[in-house]
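pasting for the record
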Amino acid sequence: MSRFWLVPISTSDPFTLGGERFICSPDEELAEFRQALSRFRPQLLLPFKAHLLPGEEDTDACGTEHVPFSLAAPGDIVFDGKALHLSDCASAMLDRLPAPEEAGRRLDEIEASFATDLPENVRTWLGTMRRWYGQGLRVIMLKEEP
């Protein structure tokens, strides 16, 4: 079964997945969260398949067959061009992410769209995104497939 991770981007150069990432679950609450995001601001948090992030040097192929890192491992994951190369597909996706300031404004609209009785997990996810955006970080959702 696929797992979805909410992930801060610590730096753009080198591209770094922040170590504070976490799995979004349960699935029912994740579905409600994703539906609200896509209904009001579809490009705010597009899911991206984790295996498409890494690429191989000197190739146009997007991604790799196997993910050469573990999202569950502690710490940052750095695509420094040595151990991990960022694929062209991932670079293109990252270019489409909104700036943290704009994303924070969009998040206000999304939060207003939810009923007042939000599940605790959804409140946590929104609060974490707001904190990351407030720190000037961009945020992505990675889909990890078995």
